Amino acid sequence: MKKIIIASLTLLLLHATASTQTLTRDQRMEWWRDARFGMFIHWGVYALPAGTWQGHEVGHGGEWIMNRGKISVADYQQMARGFNPVKYNPEAWVRMAKEAGMKYIVITAKHHDGFALFKTNASKWNVVDATAYGKDLLKPLAEACRKYGIRLGFYYSHAQDWNNPGGAAARKIASEGWANPDSARIDAYTLAHSGHWDPAQTTDSMGSYIDKVAVPQVKELLTNYGDVAVLWWDTPTGMTDAYAEKLQAVLSLQPKIITDDRLKRPNFPGDYKTPEQKIPNLADLDGKDWETCMTMNGTWGYKSYDNKWKTPATLIHNLVDIASKGGNYLLNVGPTAEGEFPQGSIDGLKAIGAWMKVNGEAIYGTKASPFGLLPWGRCTKKAEKGITILYLSVFDWPKDGRLTVPGLKNTVVSARLLTGGSALKTEATADGLVIHVPEKAPDTIATVIRMEVSGIL
């Protein structure tokens, strides 16, 4: 019996190894490239102060309040005891993401304040052991994602950790921007040089922190929650190649996983680049996979007074612009301390969802525009069976009823509006293809024309 068990385990190990070896990067990335649209969630203890500390509004994102407010470890952990998100409904969160047309979710399993939204044996600084709530927040979210067919990813601040001793802390120098020490001697950095503000943060070395907290917690995340689609590292402050190699090795627990480019630059590039709060210009694109992460207002973590919400038009135009350049859009929500999405986020998600319900095929599974930027909007494309499907998202509707696609000479197979489905007439001209459109735009934010042309553009 023992021999049979050993043989069976050996076969399973060989099968797992073979699967890992045969899974190419393109195979791992396939779903992500098709998805184009996901939800970022920044949630943690920082939602409690909601941007205010000792009566003063604290600048930068809400999730940076401990750093920007120079809150001591003792004070921050004392505050966390009141974290009790009794209105947390992970199914409602996932449904909102799905109804908005999002295909994946990435949540801050641990942000720079070191607080884990999950039960961990590596640190008592977690939602189960350190708060009134006392329950793992990620397990029900993982279950909801499986139920609704949404892929789940974890953001993990692997280097910066302002509560667990030994974690790094970036500082900002006006003349230099964000300091990011990258040296094998990082453990010798003093309070003054490393950006720490509380002696409690430096009672252990960074090497010890990596071994005792970061590596074990990443193992837990990749072991206890089923399939994990993405590991989203952030801010490699103080990282060395040796530290990065230890964290990279843990990824073998999830052979299908993909990662961003923030583990440790430049030797650990991950699978895709992550421009933050901006959409790259065409000239800046280098053919690599990329994902723009962006807030819906001005903060990642919840701030009670930040009501500068992007309009539905801006959100939808951003999504189309990003897809037209071959990228993904990771749009953030910062829930309240009670566990609810702010109303501004709910409104924005509903507006995107209504548009995506009609026009989603212009986003999912598309490739970048063959035309570059267009004066009246953006274009995405698909290719199949000798034809190219062009999705023309028109932001500025032509007043003369003539929409010109510059330089397009291919024979048109068909052209129609996605809104309503009406067929459209086209005309070949010296300047390109002219599409005759109705007097008024069917969709005032972005009307999509689906056009099939012969050949592969």
Summarize the structure in short.
The protein has 457 residues and is α/β, with parallel strands linked by helices.
| Number of DSSP-assigned strands | 18
Helicity, as a percent range: 25-40%
- Which CATH architecture of the largest domain would you pick? Alpha-Beta Barrel
Mean pLDDT metric: 92
- Order of strands across the widest beta sheet? 9-8-5-4-1-11-10
Largest sheet: 7 strands, parallel
Structural class: alpha/beta
Work out the count of structural domains. 2
User: Which homologous superfamily in CATH is the superfamily of the largest domain?
Assistant: Glycosidases
Ranges where pLDDT stays below 50 over 5 or more residues in a row are 7-20, 173-193
Shape: elongated
* CA radius of gyration: 24 Å
Helix count, DSSP H or I runs of 4 or more residues: 12
Strand content: 15-25%
CATH names the topology of the largest domain as: TIM Barrel
Following the backbone from N to C, one meets helices and strands in this order, namely HHEEEHHHEHHEEEHHEHEEHEHEEEEEEE
**Measured distance between first and last alpha carbons:** 61 Å
The CATH first-level class of the largest domain comes to: Alpha Beta
